[in-house]
């Protein structure tokens, strides 16, 4: 079959005849051998066809008959060959650039995808940060509100306590003369003098009125009983004495005590068995 040299210019004419309808077609092909891309059908006919003459090859399949005619062949001169080689070099460079461009485009696409992913992540992170900031703000506000409530409650308690015990200092000073006044009234009960007794009755009424006033502001007496157990919260030891009674039993009351609401402002003075 035919063989061609590199850079040889070859022109073919391909006659195609369809056996089913006897229709014929003709087409010309021109190639620079080993430079241009050759049609696979042309290569198949050259490789597998039957040589009719030096310029014709026939190739048959089930439905079609092909006749390939070699119209011309000529060697390319040095100048044309140089141009072809340069063109081929340029084509190779162009293909290389195309490949590099495709790689760069792939890299750019990947970078764009990465950027989009980073944008999405940044948005998600920003939303998470925003939500965390909102949660922290809510928690801080809740803590502030709780603190304000505690302060307010504490202030209310302090105000309430201040109101309850506002008279404590005054009452502490009043207790001693009031106690002495009561002792004097009790001591004068047995005097056999009608005039003095009338005064004592008046003083006693006055004392009761003062006692009622003091009771209305929260002052109450602490009156221990002989035989009860000593309580350090409301009693104060005047003296410890030896006794047949159980230890810490109150033997004698020297003086009553006083409480302002729940606060002991003067403990009862007692003698206790040791």
TrEMBL record:
Q: Which GO terms describe its cellular component?
A: cytoplasm
Q: Which InterPro entries match?
A: GrpE (IPR000740), GrpE_CC (IPR013805), GrpE_head (IPR009012)
As for what it does, the entry says: Participates actively in the response to hyperosmotic and heat shock by preventing the aggregation of stress-denatured proteins, in association with DnaK and GrpE. It is the nucleotide exchange factor for DnaK and may function as a thermosensor. Unfolded proteins bind initially to DnaJ; upon interaction with the DnaJ-bound protein, DnaK hydrolyzes its bound ATP, resulting in the formation of a stable complex. GrpE releases ADP from DnaK; ATP binding to DnaK triggers the release of the substrate protein, thus completing the reaction cycle.
Query: Coiled-coil regions in this chain?
Result: 80-157
- The main location class comes to cytoplasm
Can you cite a GO biological process for this protein?
protein folding
How does the annotation summarize its subunit structure? Homodimer.
List where in the cell it is found.
Answer: Cytoplasm
- List the GO molecular function terms: adenyl-nucleotide exchange factor activity; protein homodimerization activity; protein-folding chaperone binding; unfolded protein binding
HAMAP family linked: GrpE
What's the family?
Belongs to the GrpE family.
Q: Could you tell me the keywords of this UniProt record?
A: Chaperone, Coiled coil, Cytoplasm, Stress response
| Organism (species) | Metamycoplasma auris
Specify the protein name.
Protein GrpE
